[in-house]
Write a structure and sequence with these properties.
277 residues; alpha+beta; Glutaredoxin; Alpha-Beta Plaits; 2 domains; 6-stranded mixed β-sheet; 8 helices; 35% helix; 22% strand
């Protein structure tokens, strides 16, 4: 073990004191505490991240600044559980998760499955985008009735404001009916239904090529209901992509607000007709 520690310290380049991540308890993550972390994440249904570092490694200094970034810390406090691992002490952990570069950040789903990783120094803004991306993917893959509403503070750091606006205070998005199904896209046509429902508009396209591109992307990340509607605008056909199926328009509006803030989609609530026309 001593030889391994010496080799890794020489390889990495040395000289950085141990630091504690913002929103992270001090000390290394042991097998026992890792198990507790997994249980906590599952109970809270929150993703979690593990930062693997080597004390006294050169890259540790730069990564220290990333974790102390105010915007990143605030986002992690709201959406993630974060812990750190001392790679020199937890050889079994880095072997199990095939960590070969330091620092490394492992990002896990609430169920404990790895969703992604970063290797080497990462700037705080880039690291925050990565964490946001994985939250959005989790949001999109869940059953719509169970989707949480993500509320994110996007205001400049120089003018701090409340971290979020309660979902119940958000105004209901404009509600307009979705129009006719698009020939050739019967797989995404709304089946006949007896009651009115609502979906969330996530794309508007003036060509089937653009429509196909978005459908291809959505098919990789979205597992819920997906509809395609068409309408005439200025003598041109316009294609709309709608996701979700809600009886309650207020619930659809809350979902739309979360998508708009985290995924930068149009996110307008549309009324789905009572059956395909």
């Amino acid at each position: 073990m001593n030889r391994i520690r010496l080799f890794m310290a020489m390889f990495m380049g040395l000289t950085c004191s141990f630091f504690t991540l913002a929103a992270t308890p001090p000390g290394s993550l042991t097998p026992e505490t890792f198990s507790s972390l997994q249980q906590e994440a599952a109970q809270q249904q929150r993703p979690f991240a593990v930062y693997v570092q080597i004390p006294q490694a050169k890259a540790c200094r730069k990564m220290d600044r990333s974790w102390k970034d105010a915007a990143l810390s605030a986002y992690l406090d709201e959406h993630y559980l974060v812990r750190q691992v001392n790679a020199l002490e937890e050889q079994e952990f880095i072997h199990d998760y095939q960590v070969q570069r330091f620092p490394t950040v492992l990002i896990f789903s609430p169920e404990g499955k790895i969703m992604g990783r970063t290797e080497g120094y990462v700037e705080p803004a880039t690291l925050e985008r990565i964490f946001r991306k994985h939250v959005v993917r989790l949001l999109q893959r869940k059953p719509l009735q169970a989707l949480p509403v993500l509320t994110v503070d996007l205001s400049p750091l120089s003018a701090p404001q409340p971290a979020s606006t309660p979902a119940k205070e958000r105004p209901l998005a404009e509600t307009r009916p979705a129009l006719s199904p698009v020939p050739g896209y019967e797989a995404h046509a709304l089946p006949p239904q007896s009651e009115e429902a609502h979906g969330v508009l996530v794309g508007v396209h003036r060509s089937k090529q653009a429509l196909d591109r978005q459908l291809k992307r959505l098919n990789r990340i979205w597992r819920g209901p997906l509809w395609v509607f068409g309408e005439q605008a200025n003598e041109m056909e316009v294609y709309k992509v709608v996701v979700g199926h809600y009886a309650d328009p207020q619930q659809a509006a809350r979902f739309a607000a979360g998508l708009q803030e985290t995924a930068d989609w149009p996110a307008e609530v549309l009324r789905l007709p009572g059956g395909a026309r």
